[in-house]
Amino acid sequence: MDNPYLAAYRAATAHQRDHDPRGLGPDGAPWLSCMCDDCRGLARQRGFYGLLREYAWSIPTDTALDTIAGCSPHGVLEVGAGAGYWAWQLRGRGVDVLAFDPDPHGRAGWSSGRRWTGVGVGDHTAAAQHPGRTLLLCRPEPEWGAAAVDAYRGRTIVYVGQVAERPAQLSSPARVVELPRWAGATDRLEVHER
């Protein structure tokens, strides 16, 4: 399945490098929008924040999606799915995904309002209702992610996000998959087994 977010991230990196490398972080990842004449006035849309709002807060790769699919023989429960970009990518690989978010329409302003796939209205309590599925948490609010981990009675938890914001109940991961990162981010995918 095509991954437009990864393509957009790579395009943003190349564009930034070509037009205004001052907008690149120390690791070479884009941070700010290019302010060349072509981009002035479109900075918010072309910059990292515009891409976060359009797609998701972390960037999936084929390896990350295959890892989730491989450890989810009975499907995935994504809690805090946002507009459903990760769920959409997984469903495109044939993974059975139940996706929930308290605000799937992004009315609070965290998303552009685009919906990638069906996401039901629900919060961390959904984790208790599907113990046979792998719990997927993509960039959860720290206390919210912790509540989902506490509610979940299953075996496998996949955490995607910044290491420093990982729920404290999760010990050392069984597997780590590095992800493309916006400058200043430490996002990665971790598989945790109980």
TrEMBL record:
It comes from the Bacteria. InterPro entries: SAM-dependent_MTases_sf. This is Methyltransferase type 11 domain-containing protein. It comes from Pseudonocardia asaccharolytica DSM 44247 = NBRC 16224.
